[in-house]
Amino acid sequence: CPHQDPPINGALTCDRWLYGQFCSVQCEERFDFYTEPASLYVCGSSGKWRTDPPGKETKWPDCSLKRIPGYSKGIEFQYYVGDCEDEETQLQIKQNFIDLFKNSTFGRAGGCVGHVICSVDNVAVFCGEKDEDIVV
Question: What value, to the nearest 5°, has the Cα angle with vertex 72 and ends 67 and 78?
Fold first, then answer.
């Protein structure tokens, strides 16, 4: 699938244990997605990104809006606290991905059920650029 940069002020997480690739995006908690993201972005044998749920934009959104308390465009597992480059923060980001994946159609269909390899040790984190100047 075509490479896409991680979201600005956020992180891209992808599995390292299944055929193809399953990815999710997350925002640092002070920021929100520009548009509502998919829960998962899936790259299969077609070599093209698709989304779960279907029909979302396959170019994931940046975290380019200030987050409004009590309102978020993403779901609980799509936000993290701290600096993406920090080791403890990355553990939280990885666990968010595992929790999201386990609750997805793919995770419930066997992608995570009983798999020892479905763990934070097999999740890759890619940190996006930081842009603190966002005022919207």
Answer: 95
